[in-house]
Design a protein that fits this description.
alpha/beta; Rossmann fold
Length: about 180
């Protein structure tokens, strides 16, 4: 079983692409747990919520993995949860990134075999739970995501461009690992 994790800032097409990839490869999809969790809240997110999101996602991924699909597609994982916490709660520059990361989330391992990082080179589409749509915020958030991967020693495959290019590059990256 190949575990593929899609990462990237808001509104880059992770959920749509994850669903398409699961169908294309006859695999299973683990939806973005953090979005569902956030949609149900009636208050602002806390750091403790990020721990619950990481745990909830991992439980859902374990349940899906138990079916042993050929490909398990995860719409984000702890890498993005940690990046979200840094974006929301840290206020120092990227030069001090390791000291800004939450130790618990930063030490929580990703179980992905292949990470696809979707670039923020498509228009932002607002919705009620998206928070960082301004161009400067998106770029800052993307830099935090890249720094999170670097801190974990993970080299994601970068996916950018128009929709068809994203889809084709993602399929090629997965096929190369099967």
């Amino acid at each position: 079983m190949l575990r593929v994790v899609l990462s990237g800032v808001e509104s880059v097409g992770k959920s749509t692409l994850a669903n398409e990839l699961a169908g294309h490869f006859g695999g299973l999809l683990v939806p973005e747990f953090g979005r569902t969790y956030t949609e149900r809240l009636r208050r602002d997110l806390t750091l403790e919520d990020h721990y619950a999101i990481a745990e909830g996602h991992e439980i859902a991924a374990d349940q899906a993995a138990a079916a042993r699909p050929p490909v398990l597609i995860e719409d984000t994982d702890v890498v993005m949860t940690s990046a979200w916490a840094t974006m929301m709660f840290a206020d120092r520059g990227l030069a001090a990134y390791d000291s800004r990361r939450d130790a618990m989330l930063g030490g929580w391992p990703s179980r992905g075999d292949l990470h696809l990082l979707l670039e923020p080179d498509v228009p932002f589409v607002p919705d009620p739970v998206r928070m960082f749509g301004e161009p400067g915020e998106r770029l800052r958030f993307h830099a935090i995501v890249v720094a999170e991967f670097r801190a974990r020693g993970i080299a994601p495959v970068q996916i950018g461009g128009v929709w068809e290019a994203r889809r084709a590059a993602s399929i090629a990256a997965i096929e190369a690992r099967l």
